Amino acid sequence: MLNSSRGRSQTRPTRSAPFAVMEPDHKKKSNIVGKILMVVGLTALCIIMLNKSPSLSTPTHFSRHEEGVTHVLVTGGAGYIGSHAALRLLKENYRVTIVDNLSRGNMAAVNILQKLHPQPGRLQFIYADLGDAKAVDKIFSENAFDAVMHFAAVAYVGESTMDPLRYYHNITSNTLTVLKSMAAHRVPTLIYSSTCATYGEPEKMPITEGTPQASCKHFPINPYGKAKKMAEDMILDFSKNSNMAIMILRYFNVIGSDLEGRLGEAPRPELRDQGRISGACFDAARGIVPGIKLRGTDYKTQDGTCIRDYIDVTDLVDAHVKALQHAKARNVGIYNVGTGKGRSVKEFVEACKKATGVNIKVEYLPRRPGDYAEVFSDPSKIRRELNWTARYTDLEESLEIAWRWQKVHRDGYNSP
Ligand SMILES: NC(=O)c1ccc[n+]([C@@H]2O[C@H](COP(=O)([O-])OP(=O)(O)OC[C@H]3O[C@@H](n4cnc5c(N)ncnc54)[C@H](O)[C@@H]3O)[C@@H](O)[C@H]2O)c1
């Protein structure tokens, strides 16, 4: 120790030294090693920073905000409604990122969208599960979103009663994950897919946005409706202390498909039993099932069958675009999206027979527990505030358009 320090003092050059003093070899070596270590350290630091920062890693159209371009994250964009929404957004020149785990959606629908809009910066697909918070946060840190349309969900009432935890996880918990990432990455706008199922079975029709939502005590409600109601509550609590612009859209029963026949509704065959009425009618018309089973003919309605409000998917996605355009910072808008007209199940089946030209066999069965007699909307708030109104209100016409796609897609998107 002593020696080496003495050595150092002997060799240290001074300002006034008139000549250079040669450093000893071991000192030179340790300086070089130090420098190498510093360069290596700095390089490693740069690599880490480049990997972490989207703005420093290879920038893409999706990773930076661009003036005049609104980048929308469409969760569940490989599904029925999400794919139709993405198609409409792309047509309107929005930049779209679809995130989907393909658990229920169809990659073929995304491929169709890609083929229609192949230009760079229009559409990207990210395969991810919204239950994976780390993956979700990575998506938000690598992309510059201006808005989120959160469609992704499991969405079958019957299934929710059999597997409620799956519904609370997939709907409520995943919405929390998306919301947290939106807040952390300052995404300013959320359009949330909710449902009339959050109202349970109200005493008064039509349903307005002021109709009390379901509480277990007063109105029967299934786990699907409860999970969506919880997600809504979470969003509303969050909104009280946030600048985010939020629109909650409560859809009624969605039917129909793209007017130009590019997309359709193609649920997994294993979900047929859970099915929605349009799917059941089309399956019967195609002979995949022998007929349709109508449950409950003794409700207090005109013809004894349940009454529902059927909204065409083209109108529904139009409501989303209007919601996006009208969304205001620090504001929450809640809207029913329905036609305001109730149609009986019998009426629906008759319209389906006409649309398909097939005399669908109907079997009448007793009521299914949990089905409500009558559910239809009062859509005057959305008409008044967002200037939206349903245009495709002719059941037969909507079903005819959907049938055209169904006829050539017997196997859904897997059809040749
Ligand atoms: N179809 C209707 O009649 C109706 C009515 C009211 C509300 N909604 C709501 O509309 C939304 C879309 O419904 P849809 O009919 O298009 O359903 P869908 O099953 O066709 O589409 C849902 C999509 O979300 C994806 N998804 C599900 N869980 C996911 C996860 N954890 N991570 C990533 N992706 C996931 C699926 O793969 C699928 O592509 C849902 O939120 C649903 O609750 C639908």
Description:
- By secondary structure, the protein is of the alpha/beta class.
- The protein has 13 helices and 13 strands.
- The strands form four sheets. The chain has a seven-stranded parallel beta sheet, sandwiched between helices.
- β5 (189-195), α8 (223-239) and β6 form a beta-alpha-beta unit.
- α7 (164-184) packs parallel to α8 (223-239) and α11 packs across α13 (395-408).
- The longest helix has 28 residues, at 25-52.
- Mean pLDDT is 89; it is low at 1-23.
- The structure holds nicotinamide-adenine-dinucleotide (NAD).
- Nicotinamide-adenine-dinucleotide (NAD) binds next to α3, α7, β5 and β7.
Ligand set = nicotinamide-adenine-dinucleotide
Q: What top-tier CATH class fits best?
A: Alpha Beta
* Helix and strand element order: HHEHEHEHEHHEHEEHEEEHEEHEHH
Helix content: 40-55%
Count of domains: 1
* Average of the residue pLDDT scores: 89
Query: Structural class of the helix and strand makeup?
Result: alpha/beta
Question: Could you please say which CATH topology applies here?
Answer: Rossmann fold
CATH superfamily: NAD(P)-binding Rossmann-like Domain
Strand tally? 13
What's the number of helices? Answer: 13
Binned strand content: 5-15%
CATH architectural grouping: 3-Layer(aba) Sandwich
- What is the overall shape? globular
Radius of gyration: 29 Å
End-to-end span in angstroms? 83 Å
Region (Disordered): 1-21
Keywords: Carbohydrate metabolism, Isomerase, Membrane, NAD, Transmembrane, Transmembrane helix
InterPro entries: Epimerase_deHydtase (IPR001509), NAD(P)-bd_dom_sf (IPR036291), UDP_G4E (IPR005886)
Family: Belongs to the NAD(P)-dependent epimerase/dehydratase family.
